[in-house]
Amino acid sequence: MRISGTELCQDQPMASESTLRFGAQTDEVTSLLRIVNMVRTGEATTRPEIGRVTGLGRGVVTQRVDQAIEMGYLEDGEFGPSSGGRAPRTLRFRSERGRIIVCALGALHIHVGIMALDGDVQDQTHRAWDISRGPAESLDTVMEMIDELLGRNPEADVWAVTVGVPGPVDFESGRPVAPPIMPGWNGFDVRKRFEQRFEAPVWVDNDVNLLAFGERARRGVAQLDLIYVKIGSGIGAGLLSQGHVHRGANGAAGDIGHVRVRDSEEPCRCGKIGCLEAVASGWALVRDATAAVADGASGALARIMAAGDQLTPEHVSVGATDGDALAISLIQRSARVAGESIATLVNVFNPSVIVIGGAVASAGEVFLAEVRQRVYELSLPLATRDLSIVNSANDVREPLRGGAELAREQLFDVTFPRWFAGGRPTIESAHPGDV
Ligand SMILES: [Zn+2]
C-alpha cells in the first residue's frame, strides 16, 4: 500500500493522533493486539476493513499491520475481493507458529491432541485408562502419549497446554478439588507437572467445561447461554453465560452428578446415597443391566455378557438404538431422571440451548425425547419458550477442540498484552501472581 508523507507524519507521535479517532482504545499496543485478533477471528482481514472497523487512519493501520507482520503474528495472503479499485490483500494470522496440546482425561480414557492456534486438530491419540489409578501414573501415561505425538510432529512449538479432568477444578491454581471419582487427585498440582515439562502456560479445567467450550467454537457464536450436559460414565454440566464459562467460587458449578434425586436409595461411588449418577449414569446402567441379565433378562445385553465381555455404557446405548427392550428401558429411565435435574437447571439458569452428550446420551432420540418431555413438563414456560434441546455432535474430537478454544481465549483475549512483545507466551504471563 502506498502511504503519503503526510499520513506517516501524522502518525509519528504514536498516541496523540489515534487517541482522537479510537476512543478508549488509545495506545499503540492496544490497537496492535486488536488488529491481530481481528485478523485471527476473521472480523476484518484487509487493511481497509481494519480501518473501517477500528476507525483508525490508513497510516496507523499500515504501521500496526507492519509491526504485526514483523513480529510474526500476521502475513500477507491472497488478494481479496475488489470494491471498485485495486483489490486489497487479505491478511492471515499465522496459526502454525505455535501449537496447543490438549489432554482430555475422562473416567475411562485419555485423549490427547496437538492443535494449531486456529483450533484445528493436527494429530491425536487415544487410550483406554482408568482415572482412579491416581495422578502420578495417569499423568505419566499422558506424557507418554504427548511424546508419541511430538515424535510424529517434531517441529511443533508448544505454546500452551490444556488439561481436562472429570471433576471440579480450582481454575486459578489448576488443582482438582475433592473430585468424587478421582482418588488421590484432590489438590494435586496438575499444572506444575506440565509447566515443568513444556515451559509454557498450562490451564486445567473440568472436562465438561471443555465440551462447552468446544460447542462455542463449533457454533461460532460468542454470546451463548448454553448448558452442556454430559451423561457418560459420570454426569456433569458445563455452563456458558453469554459465552463465558461459569465455574463458580470453587470450580464446582454444574457438577450435577451428585445432587440427590427422588425415591432413590442407590449408593453412589462418591460415598453418598441417591445421587443422580447412581441412577442415571453409564456405570449405574451397566450395574442394572448386569443385575437384570443375572435375573434372567434376555436380548442383546445378555448375549454380550454370555460371550464373556464386560458390559459398557456404549453397549447399553447401542442396544437401545437397535431396539433391545432392556437397553431401551434403562436408557429411558436414565433420561427421565436426568431430565428432572436438567429441568431444575433450566429454571435457575435460563439457557437458550441445552446440548446433551456422552456415551449414554449417544442413544440419540430414545434419550433426547424423554429429556425433552421432562424438561418441558417441569420447567417454567418462560424458561422454555426459546429453548432448544439437542444432541451433541457426538464427535470424539469435541474435547480437543474445546481445550484449544479455552487456550485460545486465555492466550489472545486474556494474557496477550503480557506476552506479545516476547513473541511467544510464557508461564509468567499466564499466571503472573504465582511465579
Ligand atoms: Zn454421588
Overview of this protein structure:
- With 435 residues, this protein is of the alpha/beta class.
- The chain has three domains: 5-93, Arc Repressor Mutant, subunit A, CATH 1.10.10.10; 99-214 and 397-434, ATPase, nucleotide binding domain (Nucleotidyltransferase, domain 5, 2-Layer Sandwich); 218-391, 2-Layer Sandwich (Nucleotidyltransferase, domain 5), CATH 3.30.420.40.
- The protein contains 18 helices and 14 strands.
- The protein has helices at residues 5-11, 14-21, 28-41, 47-54, 58-70, 135-152, 190-198, 207-219, 276-280, 282-294, 300-306, 313-321, 325-349, 365-378, 381-384, 398-414, 416-419, 427-430; strands at 74-79, 89-93, 99-105, 109-116, 121-128, 158-165, 169-170, 175-176, 202-206, 226-231, 235-241, 244-245, 353-357, 388-391.
- Strands 5-4-3-6-9 form a five-stranded mixed sheet, with helices on both faces. A five-stranded mixed sheet has the order 12-11-10-13-14, sandwiched between helices.
- Helix 10 runs antiparallel to helix 13 and helix 13 (325-349) runs parallel beside helix 14.
- It is globular, with a radius of gyration of 25 Å.
- Zinc ion binds next to loops.
CATH T-level fold name of the largest domain:
Nucleotidyltransferase, domain 5
List the uncertain runs.
1-26
Indicate the CATH architecture of the largest domain: 2-Layer Sandwich
What is the CATH top level name of the largest domain? Alpha Beta
Oligomer: single chain
> How much of the residues is beta strand, in percent?
15-25%
The structural class is: alpha/beta
User: Helical content, roughly?
Assistant: 40-55%
